[in-house]
Amino acid sequence: MSVLETVALIGFGEAGGILGQDLVAQGVRVNAYDQWLERPEHRPSMLNKAAQAGVQPCDSAEAAVRDVQLIISAVTAASALNVAQQIAPFLRSGQVFMDINSVAPTTKQAASASIEQGAGRYVDAAVMAPVPPQRLQTPILLGGALAEDLAGWLVPLGFNVRVVADRVGVASAIKMCRSIMIKGLEALTTECLSTARHYGAEEAVLASLHKSFPGMGWDDRQPHYLISRVAEHGRRRAEEMEEVARTAADVGVEPNMSRAIVATQRGLVDSMLSQGLGYTEPFDWRVLVDQLYRPHQ
Fold it and tell me: Which fold has domain 6-167?
């Protein structure tokens, strides 16, 4: 494959914005389309974000993908398959569709079928850590027949990618199974400490957790970090966990825990919304819990 010079981002949120900015810094020409560009109340801020990143905003997905080598889909889990289906007819021979969305293997396989029914080629990509801290160095697993070729494009630009399979679904399965633990720990911490705070027992609970798991940071920032992920991204994470539940159910495993994680992740955000609360920094889980629930007397 030739050197990567042109990219289209479908989805210009947190991950898309960072990837776009860093690719431009490497000399890549980047187009971006996001559905918020079509909303008058959000369009000015999206245009400003694109300008600061050096990215070319586009008014349609079709315009964004025209004549680029690589399309990176970075939307929500609920929109991932629809985006692949909508873009597939616009793709030309040689264009590669890199799906970094956190969805079930069967969802990735359906997206792949849509892309490859036309002229495009599909690569399954699983982002294995939050993007903001490491940016292009965020670990990404790749799978699919074109995964090795895509790695050849991305590694010279500073991406931290690793090919794990030559078929679609393996990379996403790794991510989905990991999410049961990671998002589950966030949900457990939210429920545990919200309850403990009500009874005035949080310090003793945290001390006990630190004694049992001394390397996890229960005596420091770990509780704040875990609950902050729910407060800031709970709705998106709930959508991902619905895909995790599908991943388990597709192979006959009853996804009891995954469904409970969906309820807890979405439930915290819904409670915040109902009380007019938003995510703010610096984040302190105790402040949020005291705002949401009556603290102990």
Answer: Rossmann fold (3.40.50)
